[in-house]
Amino acid sequence: MGRTAATPGLGIGLTVQVAKKQRPDQDARIDAHVRVRAFAAGPRDRVPAVDIALVVAVDVTAERRDAAVAALAGTVGALPDGLSYTVLGGGGEQCYPLRGRWALAGPDDRRQAAFSVGRIAASAEGRAPAGYTTWLAAARELFAERALPVRHLILVTDGGSRGDGDDAARPDSALSLELARSEGTFTADVIAPGAGWDPVPLLAVAKRLHGTAVSSPDDFAPAMATALARLRRVRSPELPIEVTVRPAVREVTLTETAPHQQRLEPDRVQDDPHRLEFRTHQWQPESRDYLLTLRADASNDPLGVPLQLAEVAVGGAVEPVVVRWLPSGTAADTARISGAAGRDIHTMNVSTQMRTALNHGYTALDLDRRERAEAQLGLAVRLATEIAADWVLDEVRKVARIVDGPQGRVSVGPAVDPGTVRQGLLNITSGHPVELPGLPVSGPEIRCPDCDHPAGPAAGFCIDCGRRL
Fold first, then answer.
1. Residue 347: per-residue pLDDT
2. pTM for this structure?
3. Which domains can be identified in the chain, with CATH numbers?
4. 418: helix, coil or strand?
């Protein structure tokens, strides 16, 4: 079943599905499918421009400078009235506004900005690479002066100023330390023209600062427009998912499986050791799917009776995780994959393994490790064939030949374009949700006949006036 509740700017629908029959082990694993559906609530369909502070940092080499100037001119010429913004270029120097730290978009400002961005300098012109850390630190200082609800950086980079400190794999690197300082202060998208960049630090910036990383042609204006349109659809910059568990539950993990794959790190709620808070970010009207995994000790629990192991809460909507431990020798072994909930959970687990293998395969190609690449891409193909994830087959065909899909056999040729590999690494992270037949597709939005307030298809009562729907 599902519950609907309200949070400012959003209505929240929550559904939790779990296989009810489980085997009682001392270390029993219980998987639950959590779907959070957010729909617009309130009179506005977009974030007001006056609530947005935007920093555009352009880091391109001299060969792309002319294209960058043209793309910037088109971008600043289309900014909505009232938006606060700054343009950085070169080694992190401010290119616009010419006076002060922030410009306010408007008719006169747009004309001046479209002309002034021609001053932007290319990266590494007569100086050492600035490093991505420089751009993040500059943005953080600027945002400290602009306490607006939405603070966002768009970093356009072809890798021209990647520095020695931009090692995302080391927690003590300059980039990792700056990302830790910036997280929670602003969000960021990365747009990467060309293919000469290292994808690892770009993905680290997008992941830690809750944005996206996409490849782009030299004319990055369409990618900028897409990023800005998505930013204005964000109704809630942050939305925590709370999971409260019984003392017998020893381990809790929550993995987003769609639209992106990422394992969420929990924060413990003060004074409640059995409650965890998983922070999620940049919510617009959409649906997200999560795999909730619990490890529980069932040795002291009664058999055959419903037991609530956990409670999931999002934006005021609450759903329980209820199971029944079956006696030994029953059909418990097959219960985990039976029914709609079991099929969905199986698909989500396969999808997670498939995306991981695809990413590992592309990474191995980037490091010129052909045997590992074939093994991982083959695993991704086999799993994709099982759940009909055709987009994975398309990604593999860009770099390898599929010999036998069901058996997971692929062949990597003698020459693979490095640019294709690097663009693929970004593309793998950019969505591709898996179809889950176990939950019904959300129906059209309904509205209260008394007060005309919007409500989700699963709503039983209007969240504004309380009328039964």
1. 87
2. 0.81
3. 17-34+240-336 (2.60.40.3670), 49-233 (3.40.50.410), 346-428 (1.20.120.1690)
4. helix
